[in-house]
Design a protein that fits this description.
The protein is built from seven helices and no strands. The protein starts with 13 loop residues before the first helix and ends in a 10-residue tail after the last helix. With 151 residues, the chain is mostly helical. The chain folds into two domains: 29 residues; 96 residues, Alpha Horseshoe (Serine Threonine Protein Phosphatase 5, Tetratricopeptide repeat). It is elongated, with a radius of gyration of 29 Å.
């Protein structure tokens, strides 16, 4: 068979194929993202609220075993990922502040204690929270380090 140089090429040129392939890939990615969004929005509300409870449980276990830094990481991850009520947020932030106090880090403790104070409208440990704040403020302002436990 002789190929006639006057005949145009059969099929699509590369200039057309590449954009078609790219657009097809982008369309598949968009449909995949839409499917994932629809699939996750169908999760019942109870499952959504329990989704990150394991972080809180792990944080409690670490705290009870004296692993304060690791507990703080779990509690912060919980607050970052879970939309909590003001009361739960105050309790977790206060716990983080207490852990920092136990580690003699009043500057970091105060940022969490103040956060707990902001969320503490119905918080039952408000007096204890205020004592912790006062203790840290006194510690920061004083030249001598003091024992931070107020229990």
């Amino acid at each position: 068979m002789d190929i006639d140089s006057n005949n145009p090429k059969t099929g699509l040129s590369n200039r057309i194929k590449i954009p078609i392939i790219i657009l097809t890939f982008l369309t598949l990615c968009a449909l995949g993202a839409l499917f994932v969004k629809i699939a996750t929005s169908v999760v019942p509300e109870k499952d959504k609220s329990d989704r990150y409870q394991y972080l809180l449980s792990v944080g409690d276990k670490l705290k009870n075993n004296g692993l304060n830094e690791q507990a703080i990481e779990q509690y912060i991850s919980y607050l970052d990922k879970e939309n909590t009520s003001a009361l739960v947020h105050a309790r977790v932030a206060h716990t983080i502040g207490e852990l920092y106090m136990e580690m003699s880090n009043c500057r970091e403790a105060l940022s969490w204690l103040f956060r707990a104070e902001i969320y503490s409208a119905k918080y039952q440990r408000t007096n204890e929270l205020k004592n912790h704040i006062d203790t840290c403020l006194t510690h920061i302002k004083s030249a001598e380090p003091k024992n931070l436990t107020t229990r």
